[in-house]
């Protein structure tokens, strides 16, 4: 699976690793993706989400019902 947050859509960033001699090599900055289970009262079941840690904070702030409604409105399967 790719490093992609289902809540925020965060995906990897790309850049360079720079050594002491200043040689640049390509690298990838992955978001901190966690697999979480949430109970969604509006659906009456639990859902498994692959969310970043910032996405977890967003769920805590907005509520799981509002976040799941946005995910379903985008047409993403849960």
TrEMBL record:
Keywords: Ribonucleoprotein, Ribosomal protein. SUPFAM superfamilies: L28p-like. The keyword Secreted does not apply. It comes from the Bacteria. Residues 1-21 are annotated as: Disordered. GO terms for cellular component: ribosome. Belongs to the bacterial ribosomal protein bL28 family. This is Large ribosomal subunit protein bL28. It comes from Isoptericola chiayiensis.
């Amino acid at each position: 699976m790719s490093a992609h947050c289902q809540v925020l859509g965060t995906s990897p960033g790309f850049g360079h690793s720079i050594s002491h001699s200043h040689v640049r090599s390509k690298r990838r900055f992955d978001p901190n993706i966690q697999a979480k289970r949430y109970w969604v009262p509006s659906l009456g079941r639990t859902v498994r989400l692959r969310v970043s840690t910032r996405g977890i904070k967003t769920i805590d702030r907005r509520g799981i019902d509002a976040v799941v409604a946005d995910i379903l409105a985008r047409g993403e399967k849960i």
